[in-house]
Specification:
Radius of gyration: 23 Å
Number of helices: 12
Strand content: 15-25%
Helix content: 25-40%
Structural class: alpha+beta
Oligomer: single chain
Largest sheet: 5 strands, antiparallel
CATH architecture: 3-Layer(aba) Sandwich
Strand order of the largest sheet: 2-1-14-13-12
CATH class: Alpha Beta
Length: about 425
């Protein structure tokens, strides 16, 4: 290497080092310290351009006292309810919570999350559902919808939970619980505003085929307060496959602020850490069921039987995705992710029972360099996933070395996970709408 090349290399290295320190210096604590450790050039570029990538972070430090009681401290970066991002599949999480709450409050004999549920078609474009081939008994249930929504983030289970709840009650409940940013207006079915206001009639059926309960179709008469227009991008494809040279209008799309999603997850992992208003009203058995499937892997699950090469263990664990597609045995991630329109989001509680560390980390980022929305051409593989992996690694490394006054031995609240039956010769599910 010539002296000129050496000098050039040294200059470039110093430039990026100085740039990294400049970016870090502009960030509030503890983000300035944690994020300055990242050397990945793609992640640095994202961090240096918050307006372009619309990223938001919520880091929740958890400290246990001498009795083992957890105490929480939230730190936010660009996390603003007015800074819109599309939650995509994140909305499946509150609907799972609300559905179990509704069953609990119905409190009817023979009707629970495992009871067979059927859906009729009562309005334009609605789709009936009387069977579920991925379930062990081939019948739909709220429990199985939640499994499918959490394990690999399937879309139709979300639609069914939406139909079971009804558009009006979903939003009324979330607002009453203090999640004021929440606005869930649409199913993942390409429906019009009016069609989304209508939801299917529902029936609960016992094991002999007898109808236990019939719920009439619902229609939401309430109006929504959408606020200021949310226009993103330079152009977009419309429903007629036409390119429109104007921003995409997200004003009437689903919406939940990152800090609200963090609190929803916290309310289920640690119910006593949030106010009673913020909690969901279901049984301890239901809570542990949710925790199991928020953290269980497709490779552990018999029903549905997902192909583990396609739907690998870290498939919906964005902060821990790497080329191995595996998860460390001592780490469990209780989380929900979403990805659509170039937005990638992960809201997680991370538990490491080997090193006795725990924390919450939530992040969203927008990766759409061509500025065209709804064209299915986003920078997820080259920017979005690497960014979330680097962010996840930086916070995990920080937690490994962060001093704690007390470090109790941590135990996973989930008592036991499933194990895939090696003798099961059924074909694996290779494709799913998610």
């Amino acid at each position: 290497m010539t002296s000129i090349m050496k000098n050039t290399f040294l200059f470039v290295s110093l430039f990026f080092l100085v740039k990294a320190h400049q970016v870090a210096a502009q960030l509030p604590a503890p983000f300035n310290t944690i994020l300055s450790t990242i050397q990945d050039s793609v992640t640095k570029k994202v961090l240096d351009n918050p307006d372009t990538y619309r990223y938001q972070l919520v880091y929740t430090k958890i400290d246990r006292d001498q009795r083992g009681v957890p105490h929480f401290t939230n730190y936010t970066l660009n996390a603003d309810a007015n800074n819109y991002f599309n939650p995509a599949s994140m909305v499946k999480m509150p609907l799972a919570f609300l559905s179990l709450e509704k069953l609990n409050e119905m409190n009817l004999p023979g009707i629970n999350k495992f009871t067979t549920i059927q859906f009729d078609s009562n309005y334009q474009r609605q789709v009936a559902m009387y069977a579920d081939s991925s379930a062990e008994n081939k019948k739909p249930s709220i429990a199985h919808f939640i499994k499918r929504a959490f394990l690999i983030s399937e879309n139709d289970p979300y639609n069914r939970l939406y139909q079971f709840m009804g558009q009006g009650p979903i939003n009324q409940k979330l607002q009453a619980k203090g999640y004021g940013s929440s606005r869930i207006t649409r199913q993942f079915m390409g429906f019009t505003e009016n069609q989304n206001r209508h939801t299917n009639g529902v029936r609960f059926i016992d094991s002999n085929g007898k109808t236990l309960l019939t719920l009439a179709p619902q229609y939401n008469k309430d109006s929504f307060q959408f606020g200021a227009p949310v226009l993103i991008g330079d152009a977009h494809w419309n429903s007629k496959d036409e390119v429109i040279h104007a921003p995409y209008d997200f004003t009437k799309h689903n919406n939940i602020a990152l800090i609200d999603m963090q609190k929803m997850l916290q309310s289920v992992v640690f119910p006593n850490s949030v106010s009673k208003q913020n909690r969901f009203n279901f049984s301890e058995e239901d809570r542990l069921f949710l925790l199991q499937y928020l953290s269980q892997y497709p490779s552990e699950t018999n029903y549905p039987k997902y192909d583990t090469a396609t739907f690998y263990d870290s498939y919906v664990k964005f902060f821990f995705q790497d080329s191995t597609h595996k998860m460390p045995n001592h780490i469990r991630v209780f989380n929900k992710v979403g990805w659509a329109y170039g937005f990638l989001t992960d809201v997680s509680y991370i538990l490491d029972t080997k090193n006795n560390i725990e924390y919450m980390l939530s992040a969203t980022v927008y990766v759409n360099s061509d500025g065209v929305v709804n064209d299915s051409k986003y920078d997820e593989a080259t920017v979005g996933f690497p960014f979330l992996k680097q962010i996840g690694a930086a916070f995990y490394a920080h937690e490994l070395t962060r001093p704690r006054a007390f470090k109790p031995k941590l135990i996973n609240q989930v008592r036991q996970y499933e194990k895939r039956n090696p003798k099961d010769t059924r074909p694996s599910i290779l494709h799913a709408d998610n």
